[in-house]
Every structure is written in structure tokens, then in C-alpha cells.
Amino acid sequence: MNRTFLPTTQLLALMALAAACGEPAEKAPVSGAGSEPAATAAVATTRRVPLHPTADDELPPAIIGKGGPLLGTDLHYLKGDTATTGYLAVPEGEGPFPALVIIHEWNGLVDRVRQVADDFAAEGYVTLAADLYHGRTGSNPEENRALVGEVQSDPQTMVANLNAAATYLKSRPDVTGRVGAMGWCFGGGVALSFGLDGEHHDATAIFYGRLVDDPAVLKRMDHEVYGTFARLDRGIPPEAVQRFEEALRAAGIPNDLHIYDDVNHGFWLRVDGKPETRTAPALDAWRRLKAYLQRTLRS
What we know:
The chain has one domain (8-298): Rossmann fold (3-Layer(aba) Sandwich). The longest helix has 24 residues, at 275-298. The protein has helices at residues 8-11, 14-18, 111-122, 141-153, 155-171, 186-197, 215-218, 238-251, 275-298, and strands spanning 35-36, 73-75, 86-89, 97-103, 126-129, 175-184, 203-207, 225-230, 255-260. It starts with 7 loop residues before the first helix and ends with a helix. The chain has a nine-stranded mixed sheet with strand order 1-2-3-5-4-6-7-8-9, with helices on both faces. It is α/β, with parallel strands linked by helices. Helix 7 links the parallel strand 7 and strand 8. Helix 5 (155-171) packs across helix 6 (186-197).
């Protein structure tokens, strides 16, 4: 698909946002059952995640610090690239299931993100956690900024990476063909860029990621957008979210955006960091997300 890519400064402005991703760095080795072959065709994994959707008053275990042992499989989904190592989590059962590409924060594909992939598989989604850093993770802000800068300098390669992830998911016989993308912070901005410039997919969910407020650009989106934001976020302030919402309306793009009071950037992925203020908004955001994925990927 031929697209006109956003200028780098407008695409993500990731370097300015990166300082807001200031949760303690998690550096973890690539985990799982070992690497699968390059994903030139649908590859069935022998490791499956039991179906166990959360109750209405329940958050997924990973984001409250109670993620269990990893149940998925490492996956080289870029043909001929053995450094880029995603993480594939597949629900038990024959399916077919809808699918998700989830996009890591600025420090790379670490085990909390893999655990979240398992949690989405437990909800009934074949989930591929993408790797935009070629198997690397950062352990401090300087390393993280350097990794972000590499992606920022080559947005077409970034989109091609995610196109390959979505294509792999669609090729699996246990996938319905409907695929969504979501991410947090750096990954949230990337999810938006992928929704604008990537091959067709069916959902885009943004958690406090860099935004675009040009209706002419947003007209390239062909599906409803979900967004969760934090009022105390200095990197993505409420005014930026309001401009984004107004631009989506002007572009005719349906959306479900919400700004949560009394929480800051990064609150949803790490509820356990401050559970007394993060639990209630995280639960509401989770209920909204489940409803959004139901209507965009299952309806």
C-alpha cells in the first residue's frame, strides 16, 4: 500500500515524549519456549493460554503485578530476520479468534508486556507483542532514548515491521482475519502512526501516546480509535487530547477517548506502582477497552 508518511517531527515527536516514560526500567532477557522459524506461513504453537476472561470488576493480572509464568512462544515474524523477536500468545481452543498486535514502551519488549500478551490471549485474542528494537531492551533513560531515536529516524521500517506482524496474524488458520493494534507511551504513538500509514487493520488503541491534531492526516484512519489518557501527564496534557478529539471529529473518525483524573503517564500498565489511585481508573479503562475490542474485532 502506498502511503504518504508523516514527517518525523509530526509522526511521533518521540524524543520529547520519552522523558515521560519514567517508570523504573525493566531489562529482561527474551523469554518463552524458544524461537519459532521465520513466519513465512501460519505456524501453530504448542503452548496455549487457557481461556479465562476477566470478570467485570477484575483487572488483567499483568498490570497489577500478578502476571504468571509466560505461556507464549518467541517468534521471528520478519522473514530472514532472526534478531527481531516478537512474543506470540495463543488462546486454547480451535478458534478462530480475533487478533492483536501490541506495541511496547520506550524500553522495549520486556516480560511485563509479554505477560499482557498472555492476558489478552486469556481474553480470546491471538496476540503478538511486536519487537521494534531487534531483540534489544534499554535499562536506563539514555539507552531507551537511543532506541527510540533509531525508530524515529526510520518510520517506514517501523510500519513495515508492524505490517509483517499483522500479516502473520492474518495468515494463521486460527485467526478470523480481524486484527487490532494497541500500545503504551512510545507504543501508543506508534499504534496511531500504524493506524494512519500501515496496511488495513480494524482497531487502534492508544494509551497516552503521542497524538496528531491535523484532520487531513487523520482522515487516513479507516476505523474507530480508542484512547486512554491521564490528566497529570506532562507529556500528553489534556489540551493535546482535546485537540486530537476535535481533529478526529472533523475527520469523521469515531472515537472513544477519556482523560482520567489524579493519575499520571504510565498508570495503566503498572497499576501496582500506585494502586490506591490507579486501580479505579485502570478498571474503567479496561472495561472500555474490552467493549471497544468487542465491537471492532468481534462484531
